[in-house]
Write a structure and sequence with these properties.
Blueprint lengths: L7 H30 L3 H8 L3 H8 L7 H10 L5 H4 L19 E2 L6 E5 L9 E8 L15 E8 L2 E5 L2 E5 L4 E5 L4 E4 L6 E8 L3
Antiparallel strand pairs: 1-2, 2-3, 3-9, 4-7, 4-9, 5-6, 5-8
Length: 205
């Protein structure tokens, strides 16, 4: 149950304002993402099967796209539809400022590792970064991971191990490791103390 301290009429108006804000942000997000990809209107039109004229109108908020059109554009730009309708992604400027006390917690399916984001939101940037805290005896699991992109780790405190393409690396304070993530890789903290590292990941296009 959601509680609100606003009168019903005020809450309704606030909801409408929020919806209008989401709709009006679709165009700028689309334009920024197209520019980021280095695509012309015609090139995106060919990729998405949406006319260049329609894309131009959407970018300038002259037309609200249907869900089908949005699905086509999102697919062509390799982004989920949620990127265009996420309220938190309203700011499309190519800069993100994160203070030490404002780091967002990033989701990870791995147990024993906490990620505090130091990079901007997904969709606006290619690079993701976090301050990672790896608990004692935590690991990425028994099966090595493989996915497009690159990762770069700089150890701030403690020790942990990373294996890339069958080659083990023991990382200590001050050490760095950079690898292509399309190679089988895994990580593990085999010590009885937590480790901290700056962990960067290059997101695929």
């Amino acid at each position: 149950m959601t509680l609100s301290t606003s009168p019903p009429s005020q809450a309704k108006e606030s909801g409408l304002d929020g919806l209008q804000q989401i709709v009006s942000s679709i165009g700028p997000k689309l334009r920024e993402l197209r520019k980021q990809r280095g695509l012309s209107l015609q090139q995106l039109a060919e990729r998405s099967d949406v006319s260049a004229a329609a894309i131009h109108k959407i970018e300038r908020n002259g037309m609200v796209p249907t869900i089908t059109t949005l699905l086509k554009l999102a697919g062509a730009l390799n982004r989920p539809v949620s990127y265009f309708v996420d309220e938190e992604s309203g700011d499309v400027r190519p800069v993100a400022y994160t203070t030490a006390t404002q780091r967002r917690t990033l989701y990870t399916s791995h147990q024993g590792i906490d990620l505090a984001a130091i990079s901007g939101p997904y969709g606006r940037f290619f690079l993701a970064g976090a301050v990672a805290t790896i608990d004692p005896h935590a690991s990425s699991g028994d099966k090595p991971m493989e996915h497009p992109g690159e990762e770069l780790v700089l150890v701030l405190e403690g020790d942990f191990d990373v294996e890339v393409d069958g080659v083990p690396f023991q990382l200590h304070e001050g050490d760095a490791l950079h690898w292509r993530t399309d190679r089988p890789h895994s990580w593990r903290n085999s010590t009885s103390a937590p480790a901290r590292a700056v962990w960067l990941a290059l997101r695929p296009l």
